[in-house]
Amino acid sequence: MSYKSPRRPQFFYTTAPLPCPYVAGRTERKVVTEVSGPEADHLHDRLSRAGFRRSHNIAYAPVCPGCNSCVPIRIPVADFQPDRTLRRIARANAGMDGFEMPARATAEQYQLFQSYQQARHGDGDMATMSFYDYRAMVEDTPIDTFMAEFRDADERLVAACLTDRLGDGLSAVYSFFLPDYDRRSLGTYSILWLIERARASSLPYVYLGYWVPESRKMAYKARFRPSEILQGGAWRVLGEPADHHPREVSSMVSEAAG
């Protein structure tokens, strides 16, 4: 007779309050849990469907007091239809080549990462990351992760997107690009590339993390239509009416724990 070992209990913790990085004057708190062990991929799938995001071996979701601005958002690949602006961005980058690379940090990536941080987020914590910090961000992953690299006609690395592969899609963890290429909208183009990659792999969704309507930096995520947002414990098409109530920590944990 064989015995199946019991599943290890999943523990969730709430972080101390910190200033919100997206909306000035607000306070941020997160619920976090460890993603590790032989069931890490399955756990991460459940957490992603419940609105969590991954950093290293930690999954987190916002549970900010009095605020429900961070909205999980994903793109249903089969229904996605690019509008005129997105088609223009695709044409502008027609000569770009995208490559799916192992999640291994390189000096070339780090140089691009530094240029992006100094130009876009010079006063942020990530602007001071050393190569070893960057390598940990890329390589410290308990799940199936790859780096999407984008090169121009001269084979110069101009954009990259750290990406997790889920059972039901691709999840864009962090993207960065050459600041000189602002007019090419490389961040948006990398998402278009992920959509096509997901479609080719018969994966139904591309997860974009959190959409924050009050944040201009997050506005681009609502360009991809139709999109689905997680509200009240259910994924709904963006724009459809829905009850907008804050999610309790206990509800989020229950959804994630399966």
Mean pLDDT, to the nearest integer, reads 90
Distance between the termini: 28 Å
* Poorly predicted ranges: none
Return the CATH architecture of the largest domain.
3-Layer(aba) Sandwich
Shape: globular
**Adjacency order of strands in the biggest sheet:** 8-9-10-11-12-7-13-14
Tally of separate domains:
2
How do the SSEs run, as a string of H and E?
EEEEHEEEHEHHEEEHEEEH
CATH topology of the largest domain: Aminopeptidase
For the record, what is the CATH homologous superfamily label of the largest domain?
Gcn5-related N-acetyltransferase (GNAT)
* Count of DSSP strands: 14
CATH C-level category of the largest domain: Alpha Beta
Proportion of strand residues: 25-35%
Helix content: 25-40%
Tell me what the structure shows.
- By secondary structure, the chain is of the alpha+beta class.
- It folds into two domains: 12-70 and 243-257, no CATH class; 73-232, Gcn5-related N-acetyltransferase (GNAT) (Aminopeptidase, 3-Layer(aba) Sandwich).
- It is built from six helices and 14 strands.
- Strand 2 (18-19) and strand 3 form a beta hairpin.
- The longest helix is centred in the C-terminal third of the chain and has 15 residues, at 186-200.
- The two termini are 28 Å apart.
